[in-house]
Design goal:
About 20% of the residues are buried. The chain has about 170 residues and is α/β, with parallel strands linked by helices.
Length: about 170
């Protein structure tokens, strides 16, 4: 494990670049956002990460490396997003990748004592709406992804499937 308790730093091929197809919201998901916006009069809040080319940015909550070699500030925590999450009765999480970006975002939430405990019981992880990083014959992070979800369940988060009716999700009291 690396110094920060995560995997060794990996230089990934370019992917999900702002303005590219890999960054775009899938049309079916965008349609669901639009329907929700109209039905609930609720504007979606898209969060962009990784806008500083001098640091990694796996977690939605901020990079692991926040200072440059001369001590200059590169980036910080997304406290606005954290405060927004704390205001909700339920937080549903889906995304890529179960073994990396999504996992490090959840780890960052749980590591923050003021946030993790308050948010854990209200968090629902859509297990079937994420996947781990696997490059056949090169690397397979399946075990790490599964271990991460076990940690999150042990911390009080709910691992659910998108095919389960929300009424049956534990802890919602619907």
């Amino acid at each position: 494990m690396a110094e920060g308790g995560k995997y060794d730093l990996t230089i990934w091929p370019y992917h999900a670049m702002l303005g590219g197809i890999g960054h775009a919201v899938a049309s079916l998901v965008e349609e669901a956002f639009f329907f929700h916006t109209i039905a609930r009069s609720s504007q979606p809040d898209f969060q962009v990460k990784g806008d500083n080319p001098l640091t990694e940015h796996y977690s939605m909550l901020g990079p692991e490396v926040t200072e440059g070699p001369d001590g200059d500030r590169l980036a910080g925590r997304n406290t606005e997003l954290i405060e927004k999450l704390l205001a909700f009765d339920a937080v549903v999480v889906a995304g890529q990748a179960k073994s990396h970006c999504m996992a490090w975002t959840i780890d960052d939430l749980l590591r923050d004592e003021l946030v993790g405990e308050r948010l854990a019981e209200r968090t629902y992880l859509l297990e079937d709406c994420t996947s781990r990083v696997v490059v056949p014959g090169v690397v397979d992070y399946t075990d790490e992804a599964d271990a991460a979800f076990e940690r999150y369940a042990a911390a009080g988060m709910h691992v659910v499937r998108s095919t389960e009716p929300i009424e049956r999700w534990p802890g919602l009291g619907l």
